[in-house]
């Protein structure tokens, strides 16, 4: 098992990419501390606990760390998956929507990293994986808040990597479009879901959307000691959209 007895905090672990990563890590022997705004994890496991937390509030991220230490006694890794995306241009996006995306997508990552770094420094081969987006380097219309927030996550990751090497590694995973609950409603509401999927697939040279398995397997590599000489990198898992 590649993560045997490793204790990993995963934000946004109750759905989507975060849930997929949590389940994959458990398969590899990890002990998971999930957190986010949901009430509970969508799955039960003896090696997983959940702490409800508003990640935009530092004291609540510190509580996540405290609960992890109470339950498992250490922290070996952190995966920041929690995030939101709101549609809007410079003219149509409200100031509140812009700020909300920065608060959740950037401040939430900063808070969780700040809360966990002291404990991560105590462990050998500890690592942080932040979930960014290919849209952090590839802007598209109607994402005036989301794209800059994910660009900030990339640079935040690099700053952490530079400051805490060699004790703590930090890398940023850049998904493309992944079929998660966040976008599944589009297919459910579409008159022709297959045609819509095909249209989305055309965005990517690999001619498909990403899967939870694609994201979880890459996060597993980045959090594990198999990537022990990789830090400060942005890793595109986006079907070639950045070519």
TrEMBL record:
Keyword entries, A-Z: Oxidoreductase
Annotated family: Belongs to the short-chain dehydrogenases/reductases (SDR) family.
InterPro entries assigned: NAD(P)-bd_dom_sf, SDR_fam
Keyword Flavoprotein among UniProt keywords: no
Source taxon at top rank: Bacteria
Gene3D superfamilies in alphabetical order: NAD(P)-binding Rossmann-like Domain
Pfam families to which the protein is assigned, alphabetical: adh_short_C2 (PF13561)
Molecular function GO terms recorded: oxidoreductase activity
Protein name: 3-oxoacyl-[acyl-carrier protein] reductase
């Amino acid at each position: 098992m590649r993560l045997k007895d490793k204790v990993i905090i995963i934000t946004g672990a109750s759905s989507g990419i975060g849930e997929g990563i949590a389940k994959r890590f458990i398969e590899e022997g990890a002990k998971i501390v999930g957190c986010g705004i949901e009430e509970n994890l969508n799955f039960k496991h003896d090696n997983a606990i959940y702490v409800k937390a508003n990640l935009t509030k530092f004291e609540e991220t510190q509580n996540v760390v405290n609960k992890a230490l109470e339950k498992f006694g250490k922290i070996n890794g952190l995966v920041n998956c929690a995030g939101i995306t709101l549609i809007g241009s410079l003219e149509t996006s409200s100031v509140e929507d812009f700020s909300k995306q920065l608060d959740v997508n950037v401040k939430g990552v900063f808070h969780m990293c700040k809360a966990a770094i002291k404990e991560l420094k105590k462990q050998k081969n500890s690592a942080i994986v932040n979930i960014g987006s290919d849209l952090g380097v590839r802007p598209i219309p109607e994402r005036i808040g989301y794209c800059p927030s994910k660009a900030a996550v990339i640079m935040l990751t690099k700053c952490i990597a530079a400051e805490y090497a060699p004790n703590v590694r930090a890398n940023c995973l850049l998904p493309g479009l992944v079929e998660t609950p966040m976008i599944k409603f589009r297919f459910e509401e579409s008159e022709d879901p297959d045609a819509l999927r095909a249209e989305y697939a055309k965005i990517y040279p690999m001619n498909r959307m990403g899967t939870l398995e694609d994201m979880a397997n890459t996060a597993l590599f980045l959090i594990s000691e198999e990537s022990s000489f990789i830090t400060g990198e942005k890793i595109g898992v986006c079907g070639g959209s950045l070519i």
